[in-house]
């Protein structure tokens, strides 16, 4: 089997023949075949069936020709092992029946048991390790983002209960960050041991914090996660989520390989704020997928032209795919990124002596 390692090389800031592509939420409801599966099974039910979860993970690789697969799962899955009951409710997201609001609530959280409670996820990874001819990215939700669901009880636009606990009960917050950090470290280490070839830490909502609060209340745990996983010889990605451009200068000492950018900051500016030490990933506004194809390609060209000025660029969206996106549009965009970037890199390459 020929193995496409273009994504891995880009993560390591090595030269590539073209710009690699993958999309956050690339296994999802934009695909009619996936919608058919979802008519029969919920997200959590799919996750508990390794063969089915592996098949869903493979779908976009086969249909779109992307350069990496991302495990079909949910950032809330490991939370169940801590003793938290939740459900993924249609048109809402994660819903927690008994949100965490006190020190005793946090104390009740158990250590994660990956093999005992989440063996089906490890089995899915092992299946994909045998089936894929591109790298498999696994992932975890970052502590702030997970904490926001546990405290608010559901998705929030203000995170007022989360910030209230963070500011008014800092010792409780610190204990929660410690427990969630331990969960992430154990979970991702098990992923790599089962065959994961890279991982991404999703911090979708941490952009709700001011930089000083991010640095005080969240960054120490993020730093610890990447430091404790630094012995793993796989690319490590941190995606600080939407509206996170102001946080980028705080990340310059993180032991990660790639930083994901949302669409509010350019590739050039993102690299500047990061100090130039990381590969970058992103950052097309997902809703440009609804634009006319000529506009979509023009925007993609701008990103690629910025990205390929130095090694270490991965084309992606600035957040996840949405259900109304078109499979045909994504396929055409993926082909365009591959073809245009290959031609542009070839043209920019110095002539052979």
Structure explained in plain terms:
The chain is an alpha/beta fold and 353 residues long. Helix content is 46%, strand content 11%. It is built from 15 helices and nine strands. The chain has helices at residues 6-11, 32-38, 43-47, 50-64, 103-107, 114-117, 119-131, 143-152, 160-168, 170-194, 211-217, 219-228, 267-274, 293-307, 327-348; strands spanning 69-70, 86-89, 93-96, 136-141, 198-202, 236-239, 258-260, 279-284, 313-317. The strands form two sheets. Strands 1-4-5-6-7-8-9 form a seven-stranded parallel sheet. β8, α14 (293-307) and β9 form a beta-alpha-beta unit.
Q: What does the average pLDDT come to?
A: 96
- Main sheet attributes: strand count, strand direction, barrel closure: 7 strands, parallel
Number of helices: 15
Percent of sequence in beta strands:
5-15%
Structural class: alpha/beta
Overall geometry comes to globular
Order of helices and strands: HHHHEEEHHHEHHHEHHEEHEHEH
**Overall radius of gyration:** 20 Å
Helix content: 40-55%
Measure the end-to-end span.
34 Å
The beta-strand count equals: 9
Strand neighbour order, sheet with most strands: 1-4-5-6-7-8-9
Poorly predicted runs are none
